Amino acid sequence: MPARLITIEGIDGAGKTTLAAGLREALVARGIDAVALREPGGVALAERIRSLVKDPRLEIADRAEALLYAASRAQLVAERVEPELAAGRWVLLDRYVDSSLAYQGAGRGLGLDAVRAINEFATAGLSADRTLLLAIDPSAGRARRGDRGEDADRLEREADEFFARIAAGYASLAAAEPARIRTLDATLAPEQLLAAALAELADLFE
Ligand SMILES: Nc1ncnc2c1ncn2[C@@H]1O[C@H](COP(=O)(O)OP(=O)(O)OP(=O)(O)O)[C@@H](O)[C@H]1O
Ligand SMILES: [Mg+2]
Question: Is the C or the N end of the chain the one with fewer CB within 10 Å?
Fold first, then answer.
């Protein structure tokens, strides 16, 4: 069985990190060696970039924001993702290129083509074998984040309209690539969501 790159996408508070942890456990229980990594982050340079892009005290122009995410992704791919896949381990990524297409392309209005181009360069063309998109209403996502009790970061301080543009951006990406991007109802209970996610990956286990 070839090692696979699975990415998990959705707006803030959709449940990506929760699902990534559950999926990793479920894969390991099936005898599949898997690692879960988060974006931006996962390796030292990318974690430092993460703290920059999340810092509410910094002014970051839209194009600079897109490039920071792409730089963080470039390091993660080179330092961890490629070596893990080469070693036969599955990689579960909590966000990947589609996040930039949705947030910077649609949300910030930079356009899909420009954001796709810098990410193609950043990742050297490495694309996900399957993407699980957690669909949730922006206000429900916001409420879930609030429940976590952390201070809002730089992006989380954006208005609901920003997240509505992102959700619409994700939906059009999923419509354009239905074989890769599978949309899941993020309002399902965690166990049901995990089962639905595994069903969308079932063909990859063969
Ligand atoms: N399926 C679910 N049903 C109900 N609550 C959930 C579900 N999944 C996650 N949660 C809760 O919602 C909150 C957000 O979940 P999580 O941190 O996994 O989202 P996220 O998409 O990773 O958010 P962020 O984009 O901010 O990293 C957490 O408090 C989590 O416990
Ligand atoms: Mg998360």
Answer: C
Each residue of 170-191: pLDDT tens digit?
Answer: 999 999 999 999 999 999 999 9
| The ligand 1 atom nearest the CA atom of 13 | 23
CATH class for the region spanning 5-205: alpha beta
**What predicted TM-score, i.e. pTM, was given to this entire model?**
0.96
Provide the angle, in degrees to the nearest 10, between the axes of the packed helices 138-148 and 160-176.
120
For a substitution probing ligand 1, which of 7, 9, 17 has the most ligand atoms within 8 Å of its CB? 17
Distance 22 CA to ligand 1 centre (A): 12
Q: Each residue of 68-117: pLDDT tens digit? A: 999 999 999 999 999 999 999 999 999 999 999 999 999 999 999 999 99
Structural domain spans, the chain: 5-205
